[in-house]
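I hope you will forgive my troubling you with a question about protein structure. You will find the record immediately after this paragraph.
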Amino acid sequence: VYKRQREYFYEVLRKQKGINDINEFITGLITEISVINNNSIDLNSYKPKCTKDKKLFLKLINGYQEYKEELHLIDFDGMLQKAYEIMVNDKECLDFLRNKYRYIQVDEYQDTNTVQFQLVSLLAGKYKNLCVVGDDDQSIYKFRGANIENILSFEHVFPDAKVIKLEQNYRSTQNILNAANEVIANNQGRKAKRLWTENPEGDLIDLRQFQSGFEEAEYVAGEITRGVRTEGKKYRDYAILYRTNAQSRLFEEKLLLANVPYKIVGGVNFYARREIKDLLAYLRVIENPEDDLAVLRIINVPRRGIGAATINKVQDWEAEQGIRFYDALLEAEYVPGLMRSLNKIKSFTSFLQVLRAKADYLSVKELLNEIIEETGYVADLQAEGTEEAAARIENIDELISKIADYEESAEQPSLGGFLQEVALVSDIDSVDEESDYVLLMTLHSAKGLEFPNVFLAGMEDGIFPSYMTITGDDPSELEEERRLCYVGITRAMQHLTLTCARQRMIRGEVQYNKMSRFVKEIPRELISLERERGEIEDRKPKMD
């Protein structure tokens, strides 16, 4: 059914203008519809996130519902809703199910949505034999539809409930738990509890503030290398956690240079992300138009109406003439059968020719900004308004920062030099993919996992928590960010290092950040500050 769902939306949207990446749009659309359905949200007052066009959104959601009914299909959300509707409208069925399932247990209750809560309430309504297990302090999936009120209001909905607090922790040292306890205590919407353990008190929390994100990543790579070489640790004993996927780039580069094997969990290596590959392909074509793969990648990105049939005609003519694909595009008027596509190809090649001319006097950063502006690449992502699109924009900002770093450090910065440097650091295949590697992941991906040594990176206001969270009107957003910090801290078993930078490159501009308010919520006596970055010896990783 999920495959049919995607096929339906693809057929409806394939000729829709203004959608840069149809597959990405459909993914966001499906997620959004699921959240709406599972939380009984009123469509009349709802503002869609995947598109600014509410008429299109209503057409898609209502059309999909009709499509399912016509073909007698049901998806997972539909099963939940149908089950609820049947139990509400058929008392005999409800009574049968209540007698059949007299004892109900629910795990991860803090992650349930509204429809799941309604189902559980109905089923348990007769015998009251309901047991739920959950931790409100680990409710971090609001963006997927999770409703924390389900667990916070449990005793009010079920007044005879007995609450058993499971406060003993078997994973972490007491100092790590104390830090987590102090941070999460600042949330108002939570149940009072305090974690404790029979484990040793353990090391203090390391706090390292650096001048830049570059130094932060260098330090982390150096500490991992030192731990493996001098303390007998394994690479798998380490995890680097961060708020957003875009933050992985500097760590990837430093780990590669230090010859440290790593793996990204729940994400894609920075230079393998689609938006990064798209924009780098533009730069490669400007530098070398004979790069056929790069030309083919960008010829219809963003969409220009140059389809596969047109490309095939140009490739056939290119083969006949024995010339490069880009040269064939420049001579497109001689390619038979192009018709209306001819003007689109001429517009594309003219754009590239102008960019190639500008490359003689524009910096690499200016050139990339020109590509982004003229193609509308970021504007299209902004118009989508989805979380996936926002993450992709963050990745593009990080690429701009990478270029700014390169132009600052290179003796004679050039487009060719930048592309050569990227080619060296993006050779992910050189990493030894054995079981012993450092794990890199976002905090959301880390939930449920544990590691002896954790680096919690980017602990700055504006990054974690984000500016949107800090400046927003909804205090619950900041509380969810704090719960995410609590999850990150409690991933560490033996040693936790918090890192931040006084200044960080964001979209190619230097941004000055204060230390995260979450760090400041940890009592001073739990933190080790014995080594400031300025006092540490140069830790540039050595190549084996």
Observations:
- Confidence is low (pLDDT under 50) at residues 428-433, 531-544.
- The two ends are 51 Å apart (CA to CA).
